[in-house]
Amino acid sequence: MSDIIAIVATKDNATDLSGAQAIFWVDTIEQAQRKALLLARIFKAMVHDLEGGIYLIVRH
Amino acid sequence: MSAYVTAIILAMAMGFMDRLYLLCSDYRNYPSYPHGYIIHLSLGAIAAALAAIAIPALLEKEYTAITFLVLCAQQFRDIRNMERETLLKLEENQLVPRGTDYIEGIAKVFEARNYLVMLVALVTCGGAIFINIWGGVVLGAVMIVLSRHLMSGKTIGQVAKIREGKLSFQGPLLMVDDIIIMNVGEEAVKQKILQEGIGVVLEPKDADARASLNNLGQRQAILHDVAALVGSKAEIGEPAFTPMARKNVDSGAIGIYFLPNERDVACVLKAVSRTPLLESAILKPLATQIGREAAKEGEKNE
């Protein structure tokens, strides 16, 4: 099964996102991509793009 | 009994040669360890020896000796278990695993090969006793060739049209032609996939083939064979580089995404084409009335 390790999102998504998952808030999409990449490498996980500046780090 | 010594020795030799021949015939089903060779060759020799004495034992009215054959058949079942266990253990450390269906198929092949060895030894011995030594040699040689023929199943290339598919991204979605493979979030990975990745599309030739390609074990076997033959960039912590196969639910076509070490499309297509069609994946809906009618309906709708 797949597990969501963390979510990286730009701050303009603040009203849409909530929950028990670790959410990393960033200012720009570039920062989000960079943070998602680093997290994925740490957890041996994959970055999935939900578009609109939301990235899921998922371990498959 | 001494009258049969030549026949028994000839039958043992022929049986052993058959095992040797079958060992060389399929590199993929064979773990390339010297100890593996020893195990299978010695078991082959035992099988050949057992079958070789069957006819002389019968002629000498030694019926108890025949019952030993049954006992031994039981023993050969362990070969299947042994192969299965070994491959399943190795599976844990494979970046592109074989899949349980492929392993089961390989294990079955190894068991069956010993029975073929027994058949070759039996026929050779019979030929040597009832015709003459040369008759035994000829019959044995024919059986060896036949045993190889008997064991060669179909390949993917025979049941599906294989062609290169175009890799593209719709937003974050990786596509092979119109088949969605997965969601990729990293820009750098997307670029790498577009530059170095290969897409393959398998179009089943009939409803039977469609049912076979539907089997997840069969798809995994294809991915494993391609990775083993061409080499894959799959790596721990890089799930996006793992090869993947997904189905077009409407047409039954399979889209394969693969990131090879060297981008050689022809080699990848050839590797897909020569993947064996797994026994566990062979389904024959077309052999039934319902299956044929359903296939006709499907053609009309297309």
Instruction: Give the proportion of residues in helices of chain B.
Output: 55-70%
Q: What is the helix content of chain A?
A: 25-40%
**H/E element order of chain A:** EEHEE
Distance between the first and last residues' Cα of chain B: 69 Å
> Main beta sheet of chain B: strand number and arrangement?
4 strands, antiparallel
Percentage of residues in strands of chain A: 35-45%
Stretches with pLDDT under 50, minimum 5 residues of chain B: none
| First-to-last CA distance of chain A | 6 Å
Helix tally of chain B equals 12
Number of helices of chain A: 1
Largest sheet of chain A: 4 strands, mixed
Count of strand segments of chain A: 4
Rg result of chain A = 10 Å
Please state how the strands of the largest beta sheet of chain B are arranged side by side: 1-5-7-6
> What is the number of beta strands of chain B?
7
| Total number of domains of chain A | 1
Globally, the shape of chain B reads elongated
Biggest interface: chains and residue counts? A-B, 16 and 13 residues
User: Which class best fits the helix and strand makeup of chain A?
Assistant: alpha+beta
How many domains would you count in the coordinates of chain B? 2
Q: What strand line-up does the widest sheet of chain A have? A: 2-1-4-3
